[in-house]
Design goal:
103 residues, alpha+beta, elongated
Length: 103
């Protein structure tokens, strides 16, 4: 049987589009740093902003995008909002990126 005769099981294009959207969302240095930080635990917006070296309003926008794509979750304690990773696959994606991209 030749390679052209084999039936390939390929991803559905609707799924491929979702994967591509996720990768586009993650293709930002600040968001990659945020996932790295949040892979270590729960952090407030101000802590994340400080560790990412961006203003809190910029951090909020990045966090909002990640949360709107169901990658993060948040909880409020008074006036402070804390973020955590919602999607367990996200840390796997970060590990894959770190292990496969040359330094």
């Amino acid at each position: 049987m030749s390679d052209s005769d084999k039936k390939l099981e390929l991803m559905d294009y609707s799924y491929i589009n979702k994967v591509a959207d996720c990768l586009k969302l993650m293709a930002h240095p600040v968001r990659i740093r945020m996932i790295e930080i949040l892979s270590k635990g729960l952090y407030s917006v101000n802590e994340i902003a400080r560790l990412c070296e961006v203003p809190p309003n910029q951090a909020c926008e990045h966090l909002r995008l990640l949360k709107n794509h169901d990658l993060l979750d948040s909880e409020r304690d008074g006036r402070t909002v804390y973020y955590k990773i919602k999607s367990p696959q996200l840390t796997g994606l970060l590990s894959c990126i770190m292990n496969n991209c040359p330094l």
